[in-house]
Design a protein that fits this description.
Strand order of the largest sheet: 1-2-3
Order of helices and strands: EEEHEEHHE
Strand content: 35-45%
Helix content: 25-40%
Shape: elongated
CATH topology of the largest domain: GMP Synthetase, Chain A, domain 3
Structural class: alpha+beta
Low-confidence stretches: none
Length: about 150
């Protein structure tokens, strides 16, 4: 079981505490009574999707002996115009670098994450148009992270 606790601080500010002992500040936009002191809840959903899939992709590539130096997932989401302002489309760009990365293995890792392993993606993919683009960049320093 996963748990979290959200405590109202003031105005539109809240502190979210995870079951694993971490905290994040959420705050609303000034036009909604916030002071812009933290992320918005829907930003957290988008960030969670990106972190979930990045974790999968790096893990899959390491297991297939790919020498990954860097992995960045950039996300853009469109939202509905009316309440509830749900995501209607998400574009994901995976930028990876490393030593002799095999493009087919990188694409396979992204596909496996999107279709099998990423829990956040599994919750969203049937309701939202999600696209994935892979860009393999040169490893500028020629070294990988362990």
């Amino acid at each position: 079981m996963m748990k979290s606790r959200i405590k109202w601080i003031e105005q539109a500010s809240f502190v979210a505490e995870s079951g694993s002992g971490h905290a994040v500040v959420f705050d609303g936009a000034p036009e909604h009574g916030g002071r812009n002191l933290g992320i918005r809840p829907m930003e957290a959903v988008l960030m969670g999707l990106g972190a979930c899939t990045a974790f999968d992709v790096v893990s899959i590539l390491k297991k297939s002996r790919q020498q990954v130096a860097d992995c960045v997932v950039e996300l853009e989401a469109d939202r509905a115009d009316k309440v509830p302002k749900v995501f209607t489309r998400i574009r994901m760009v995976y930028r990876l670098s490393g030593v002799d990365l095999d493009p087919s293995r990188v694409q396979r890792a992204v596909t496996l994450s999107a279709e099998k392993y990423c829990s956040a993606s599994a919750m969203l993919r049937d309701r939202i148009d999600i696209t994935h683009q892979v860009i393999i960049e040169d490893d500028p320093v020629g070294e990988t992270r362990k």
